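A quick aside before the break. I want you to see a complete sequence-to-structure record at least once, exactly as it would be stored in a machine-readable document. Don't worry about memorizing anything.
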Amino acid sequence: MVTENTTQSNPLAPPLDPDDWTAFRNEAHRLLDTCIDHLVDVRNRPWRPLSDADRAPLSLGDPTEGCGIEALVDELTCNVLPFSSGNTHPRFFGWVQGSGLASGLLSEMIVATMNSNCGGRDHGAVYVERAVIDWCRRCFGFPSQASGLLVSGTSQATVICLAAARLRALGTASRIDGIQHSRQLAAYAVDGVHNSTGKALELLGVGSSTLRRLPMGADGGIDVASLSRAIAEDRAAGLLPFCVVGTAGSVDLGYFDDLNALADLCAEENLWFHVDGAFGAWARLAQAPWCDLVQGIERADSLAFDFHKWMFVQYDCGVALIRDEKIHREAFAARPAYLAKQDQGLGGGEPWYCDYGTDLSRGFRALKVWSALRAYGSDALGRAITRNCEQAAQMAMLVETTPGLRLSSPVRLNVCCFSAAPREWEGSAQDSLNAKITSELQLSGDAVFSTTKLDGRTVIRAAITNHRTSEEDIIYAISAVARVRDREVGS
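That is the input. The structure line, written in tokens, reads:
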């Protein structure tokens, strides 16, 4: 007698599917409940380091024999889930990391079940991505003929965008012949531009040394007069200026270039205008005055930004948005015979996303974005962004009114940098104290700040991109800084 639940006696049963789907369902529900409980109680789950005993169960050793689903759920619950990076916690202000949404837990279940390859073909996941790209295009004021691509993050998006800019400057033959015999290209950005720009130029064979890092003006953005002079000097020296990179939210301070001024200059000089909007582009959804900071972003030739930072969706999901679809496609399209277009059937669904980037195999990133927009709406997401800006201003006020703390720069957006070191201390002592406070608060679970360098000195940095953060969290975090500071300084 054949038993359908037993793979040994049923040669047609899938060898890696559960023998007992009812038992699997029960274990899946158990894990789902655990994940929801984790999110409900996330305020009590700050980052904590892994001990040797914590790391030991993560070693795979020689996994010849599987442990089964029930044991796997136990291991996921006990050995993996408790040890996140902590960015879901409301007092996580380190670097620029998003907080994740409850809707993402649901959408990722669908993604795992469908297991879609979004490189192309005619299936639902591709149409979801097109809807997300179309919404991005309309949100940022790009024309109807603009194209876009969901990628891992702004770093990859920058490569995509600057590859299109390179093609525009050198022509389509450069894809085949390379750039070694072309004129040396030159790109321009404010000093302090995110290092993904330099890395992208390296990967594209242009070289990071060709990136001219120009001084800030009084408002923190690129000095446009210096930019104009640099372009003229490079042309006189026989170089080929091809791209200006505008910054919408600098990584250290959240400062903005005057995007309209850069767009005007690029139009006059016939240069590609790219905007790095990794997180700051989403000021577009905030209330005034913060939304005013991104005026002119709609004039960019390309824009790179992340959904997994200040739009709160789960990692990873960035976007490359490009004004000229034709140039975008020409920079990447390469369809071998086995991927030939079909007029009907699964091989249809043109255009394919593999023709707009480097990846043929692509995950279904779009659903968590689509789900967030459907579940909450852009207005609610914009209000959360506005609230984070207000909280950064609140933090700055608390720093200025707390004895022993001082702002290191004005707060423009959602980033607050400050120092807890006495002014009279020598440089290395200042650096050590700020680094010690940051480390101690991370280890204690009180708050996660990171550090950065301003004017050569280490300062404490908070980037507030968490929809769970409350005003009370801001007060608590600054009080914790002051407490450690007073103990170390002895005031």
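Two observations worth writing down. The first strand starts at residue 147 and ends at 151. The mean pLDDT is 94. We'll return to this after the break.
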